């Protein structure tokens, strides 16, 4: 067990703590950060915990100036016995390493990542909502910390884990806007890295989707603007005939951990799944032929969201709810919260004083 340094204790809940269903997402931040510094010559320093307000990011450093920053988003859930587990943290650690490699930043060893995530949960254990009613979202962020200008790899970095308690997402339905002008990522670019630049590139598209009365954006490929890629913060799945299709990991989209979890659940259920490119025109044609079933987006924050429609302003593709998305939502929730023994290897326990 990684014991928080002396002088730090488990953060008490503020007096006006909302019901789990009213937490939302990202509104309340945990008061501490678990963090570790990396020096070019000294390597990774020991993990520690500080007040969130104690760390600062240099304005003239590469983190802010050039976007030398990569991050992860994962969740900790409480099971029916009150024990806390992280969901697939080692997979998130590996994806952070891949993002870091793409941006020429030091790759945090898996154990540094795991220790920091465990510490962040331990000092915020009371922030983890009760079983079935939400989760603690962790945001490990690796950023250049050297206080100097210059377009080159920084000599000092830090990996810091912030947390926010959040409500259990609802299995809602969304209408998505397929963006045919703006692009999020191109082949050879940063699309597969979880880095701020991708989100900076994507905000205008998301705002355009909202302005047009849609819930979120669907990014299309950068070359033909016809192949579906992913949504703002979700990977996409569509049911065509007796097959479920998802775009391939071609380097332009994020290799979602939830995407991988859903692929495993579909395979386990004997559903035919394939990873291949799919255009808006193929979807429209499948719709005309009466072959379109459910579509859904998946991601850590939203879990699984049914998609009722994708439109590029000219063609509206409407999906039919076959019940598949709702079934998958429930299966995934059970696996994440430890309500089933299936796939328990995906959950890593976080010891706390109440549950050593
Ligand atoms: C751009 C993008 N795609 C996909 C996802 C889904 O990834 P994951 O399931 O690992 O959360 C996210 C969320 O992290 C995202 O930001």
Description of the structure:
The structure is a single chain. By secondary structure, the protein is an alpha+beta fold. The protein has seven helices and 18 strands. It has two domains: 150 residues, 2-Layer Sandwich (D-amino Acid Aminotransferase, Chain A, domain 1), CATH 3.30.470.10; 164 residues, D-amino Acid Aminotransferase, subunit A, domain 2 (D-amino Acid Aminotransferase, Chain A, domain 2), CATH 3.20.10.10. A hairpin with a 2-residue loop joins strand 12 and strand 13. Helix 2 crosses helix 3. It is globular. Pyridoxal-5'-phosphate binds next to helix 5. Its cofactor is pyridoxal 5'-phosphate. Its EC number is 2.6.1.42. GO terms for molecular function: branched-chain-amino-acid transaminase activity.
Outline:
Helices cover 23% and strands 29% of the residues.
Secondary-structure blueprint of this entry?
Blueprint: E1 32-39, E2 43-44, E3 48-51, H1 62-65, E4 69-71, E5 74-78, E6 84-87, H2 89-102, H3 110-122, E7 134-144, E8 156-167, E9 173-179, H4 196-211, E10 216-220, E11 228-231, E12 235-240, E13 243-246, H5 257-268, E14 272-275, H6 280-288, E15 292-299, E16 303-311, E17 316-318, H7 324-337, E18 347-350
Parallel strand pairs: 9-10, 9-16, 13-14
Antiparallel strand pairs: 1-2, 1-3, 1-8, 4-7, 5-6, 5-7, 6-18, 7-8, 10-11, 12-13, 12-15, 15-16, 16-17
The structure holds pyridoxal-5'-phosphate (PLP).
Residues 73, 230, 233-235, 254, 256-259, 299-300 line the site of pyridoxal-5'-phosphate.
